[in-house]
Amino acid sequence: MPQPILLIVTRPPRSVPYPLGVSVVPDGVDVAVYSETADVVEFCLFDDEGEHRTALAERTGHVFHGIVPGVRPGARYGLRVHGPWDPANGLRHNAAKLLLDPHARAVEGGYDWGQQVFSHQFDDPELIEETDDADSVPRCVVTDDSFDWGDDAPPSVPMSETVVYEVHVKGFTEQHPDVPEEIRGTYAGLAHPAAIKHLTDLGVTAVELMPVHQFVQDSHLVESGLRNYWGYNSIGFFAPHGEYSSAGDGGAQVDEFKAMVKALHAAGLEVVLDVVYNHTAEGNHMGPTLSLKGIDNASYYRLVDEDRSSYFDTTGTGNSINVGHPAALGLIMDSLRYWVTEMHVDGFRFDLATTLTRQDGDAEIHSAFLTLIEQDPVLAPVKMIAEPWDTAGYQVGGFPASWAEWNGKFRDDVRDYWHGTDGTLGTLSQRVLGSPDVYEDSRRAPLSSVNFVTAHDGFTLADLTAYAEKHNEENGEDSQDGESDNKSANHGAEGPTDDAGINELRGRQRRNYLATLLLSAGVPMLLGGDELGRTQGGNNNAYCQDNEVSWFDWSAVDTDLLAFTTELLALRRDHPALRPPLFRQAPGDDAVDTVLVLRSDAQDFEDGDWDEPLARAITFVLGHPGADSFALLLNSAETVVEFTLPGDQPGAWELALSSDPGQQVDGSGDTLLVRDRSFTLLRSAG
Q1: Could you tell me the pTM of the whole model?
Q2: Which of 172, 144, 134, 154 has its CA nearest to residue 46?
């Protein structure tokens, strides 16, 4: 009996509307683009023969999609979107403009600024500009997502043990003598053993990388001979910035970034990304058309209801992402999940996070953005840190309990105290205790507070203590940019000086700031380079200084300050009394961390003591069950203060650390002299 013939019919791959972007399939790529207002979306492939356009033939809901055969990883592409040009009604389609795919995993090249990359005419923004800009804009790159992660696993450091190190990928190693020259300033440079050794020897647990999403070099900076150094000008929420890749920006930046994460994880270091989802580089109605503006302007950006040609801006950059629309929210959520699942990052710090909660205009703790993250099984376990303000409002304490927040009150109050401002003891005590005045009523913990004294957008620690005024002349804005109030502890002598007394005071104040930061309850964030004495020459807004102003100078390290910071971090790591996970209580419960807040005479504060003009000395007694206790003595007065040692056991305290190199504790008395503007930390065996 003859055997039946088995016929195998192979169906061509079917296009699907999700995931958005470009997905590699057996015979090509599946392309999906969201637009409610487009008429036609074209996938534009570029090779040696030129541009090849393929219209996406299928449409599901508002997603244009289709299979483009023969396209493989490494291919360069862009999008062209046909549709109405009607700025008055928020419609800005212009098929003459080659657009970046919002979901592109890699971007190659930059922009040649000129009329051609703008959809409107300079002299009349209502008129369309139809010059083709393909020769003046970057290309997206199709990537291969495969990578040998080996046994990579997230370090999963508890928040109570976390110490964040805010750092710039390029600036950290651009001048590092032990990093090979060909990889300095790159992801590979940050992954080099010499770079990692500094971080692990120092004792931080997480690097918070300033923006690494693909960003744009602003035209006005380029024209002035400057560059966007900080990177808060994103255009690609999925693409690692190509200029930070030693292997070039042709797609290899993706694997180089992954290799960096893998190396940092192997050293026990978490990777937190500073992400800028609140706006993009496309600016306002006078800005260029680079991606979202030409794909679906009204879905992705908040427009003014009464004037749809204008943008509702709470970011100070010209536009705000429209978090009230599912497409914009979906873009952000897809990006976050991608960086966790495919790039293995451990958390995010959200620039101007309050803007992301304004789905109807007002900041809202139950906004769709916050709710989506809270219930997402991929995102819920990772660290979420908010910059809890934008240009329209200040929201410290207003984020969910699962979030941490940059605590600007900590920065301001600690600076006020060490500057010698009257009446600051009360607020200083709140900051040292983890800001219970901000978080305790909502049943949050001190770990909600990311404490910092300095950050990228301001003075470095060295400059905070050396300059009475900002010196931003090189930025080209007549020093009108940057924060205006330094609250320097310098008392008149500005900049470098040979005066031994002034320099000694500066060193003491730097140690005071570091100690207050690293010995306070909460999650400390150290600005990268502060431990080295890094200076920017008084520039407190070096966003456009991609040069020696911003880069770490490894030839001018303050080795004493580095050793002091390392010792502080070791104390914090080794002693649980210095990093409580919950708000401390008064002594009496043997199962909880305890605290006493005392005057310099070891007596309880009374109502009038907090506001006494000359009251600038305070003692914190910090305890943990079964562990060493500590007494933190702070004196911001300009005179020596005699402290009565707390407790009824004279001699029980020994010196742990002080900003005064001459401080001694002989154990024979019940008082201790603490010199002007200094701290002393005492330890008692548990």
Answers
A1: 0.96
A2: 134
Strands, E assignment, 490-616: 523-527, 594-598
Report domain extents, the chain.
21-141, 160-275+330-457+507-529+541-577, 586-684
Give first-to-last CA distance, the chain, whole Å. Answer: 91
User: Could you give the CA distance from residue 108 to residue 118 in angstroms, rounded to a whole number?
Assistant: 20
Tell me the fold of 586-684. Answer: Immunoglobulin-like (2.60.40)
Closest to 53 measured CA to CA, from 30, 36, 77, 86: 77
Give the DSSP letter of residue 13.
P
Among all chains, which residue has been given the structure tokens 């709710």? 371
Q: Which CATH superfamily is domain 160-275+330-457+507-529+541-577 in?
A: Glycosidases (3.20.20.80)
Q: Do 21-141 and 160-275+330-457+507-529+541-577 agree at the fold level?
A: no
- The full DSSP string for 420-482 is T-TT-HHHHHHHHTT-HHHHGGGT--GGGEEE-S--SSS--HHHHTT-SS---GGGTSTT-SS
Q: Is the peptide bond before 446 cis (omega within 30 degrees of 0)?
A: no
C-beta neighbour count of 420 within 10 angstroms:
16
Question: Does residue 493 have a pLDDT over 70?
Answer: no
Residue 283 corresponds to which tokens in the numbers above?
């600016």
Whole-angstrom Cα distance, residue 294 to residue 40? Answer: 12
Residue 10 per-residue DSSP state? P
| Backbone region of residue 21 per phi and psi (left: phi > 0; alpha: psi in -120 to 50; beta: other values) | left
Percent of the chain with pLDDT over 90: 87
Strands annotated E in 472-583: 523-527
The burial class, CB within 10 Å (0-12 / 13-18 / 19+), for 330 is middle
pLDDT, tens digit (0-9, with 9 covering 90-100), for 628-643: 999 999 999 999 999 9
- Model confidence over 529-588: pLDDT tens digits? 999 999 999 999 999 999 999 999 999 999 999 999 999 999 999 999 999 999 999 998
Are the C-beta atoms of 459 and 646 separated by less than 8 Å? no
Question: Which are the catalytic amino acids?
Answer: 351, 387
SS (H, E, C) 116-163: HHCCEECCEEEEECCCCCHHHCCEEECCCCCCCCCCCCCCCCCHHHCC
Beta strands at 63-69 and 58-60: parallel, antiparallel or unpaired: antiparallel
CATH 3.50.50.60 assigned to domain 21-141? The reply is no
The residue-averaged pLDDT of 420-425 equals 91
500 vs 43: which has the higher pLDDT: 43
3-state helix, strand, coil in the chain (%, to 5): 25, 25, 50
Give the list of residues 6+ apart from residue 499 with CB closer than 8 angstroms, or none: 493
Q: 621: part of which helix (H) or strand (E)?
A: strand 617-623
- For 372, other C-beta atoms within 10 Å of its C-beta total 16
Amino acid at position 307, single letter? D
Give the Cα separation of 95 and 221 in Å (integer): 28
Give the span between the Cα atoms of 418 and 136, in whole angstroms.
52
DSSP string over 75-114: -EEEEEEE--EEGGGTEE--TTS-B--TT-S-EE-----S
